[in-house]
Specification:
single chain; 283 residues; alpha/beta; Rossmann fold; seven-stranded mixed sheet; 12 helices; 43% helix
């Protein structure tokens, strides 16, 4: 631990890590213990400001981890204006988890491309809406009917700006996605990040509930981070950002217990292999 603290202190004093030091930093954090987090954060204190990615994760100015601003910065590959903070952002943005989040956007776009005509879509936990906005702007002729639900009012406001000009094809609701119901059954229910924060009993209940909104031939698709995520020590020790990591077998088992024989269950993954996707298709 002393060696890691010395190394991190040198990185802070040197204006942040350079790419040649990224692997050593990730390896050092992987060897650290949970109880080491306060000391690591104390050394990193000058970088734990809202202008930096790791500072935004730690400070949680919107009151919860993985907020819409964080995801939006990941989508745009943000770097702080301050060069010293920008080096830390370079480390953050090149880790496996942020790469997986950017891949998640492309994963959604492929799902939407596969839907027919005026298919109805539910997005539960829509965040800042950049992924939907980019899709609509690059495919202006698509007539999908999208209902997007998000609890955070600031996220809803940001999402409406991202999708301006595409109403009423996309409609944002400020509501709890774990309780809200769509006006009609949908061809796709997409839940990109909610389930990373659910306990197993909550996961089971929400799969059962959301699958009930899926029409025949449609599917529920849920994103969940894998236990194989090498970014986990960095997220937890520096950002105090904790997820419920689940592997493919666990996702399969939870889905089977929730829907029984009513759905065909498959597990997908984005190219980094870190974000898994539970697909439950209604027969």
């Amino acid at each position: 631990m002393k060696g890691l603290l010395t190394f991190v202190r040198e990185l802070v004093e040197g204006g942040g890590p350079r790419p040649s030091q990224f692997a050593a930093l990730e390896a050092g954090l992987a060897r650290a213990r949970r109880e080491d987090a306060p000391e690591i954060r104390r050394v990193l204190a000058p970088t734990l400001v809202s202008e930096s990615m790791q500072g935004l994760a730690y400070l949680k100015p919107h009151g919860y981890p993985g907020d819409y601003e964080m995801i939006d910065r990941i989508f745009t590959d943000y770097r702080a204006p301050d060069p010293a903070l920008a080096r830390w952002d370079g480390y953050f943005q090149t880790r496996a988890a942020p790469r997986a989040v950017r891949n998640r956007k492309a994963y959604l776009h492929r799902l939407l491309d596969g839907l027919p005509g005026e298919a109805r879509v539910l997005v539960a936990g829509s965040g800042g809406g950049r992924d939907l906005g980019e899709y609509l702007r690059t495919r202006p002729d698509r007539q999908l009917q999208i209902e997007a639900v998000e609890t955070d009012p600031a996220a809803v406001a940001h999402a409406k700006m991202q999708c301006a000009g595409f109403e009423p094809r996309v409609r944002f609701e400020r509501a709890n996605p774990a309780r809200w119901e769509p006006s009609r059954k949908v061809a796709l229910a997409w839940c990109p990040g909610l389930f990373d924060y659910f306990s197993d009993p909550q996961f089971h209940r929400q799969v059962e509930r959301l699958f009930g909104f899926v029409e025949a031939g449609g599917e529920l698709v849920i994103g969940n981070f894998s236990p194989d995520d090498p970014t986990r020590p960095y997220m937890e020790l520096v950002g105090d950002w904790h997820l419920q990591h689940r592997g493919g077998e666990q996702l399969q088992s939870l889905a089977e217990s929730a829907v029984g024989g009513a759905g065909d269950i498959q597990i997908g993954r984005e190219p980094a292999g870190v974000n898994l996707f539970l697909h439950v298709r209604r027969e």
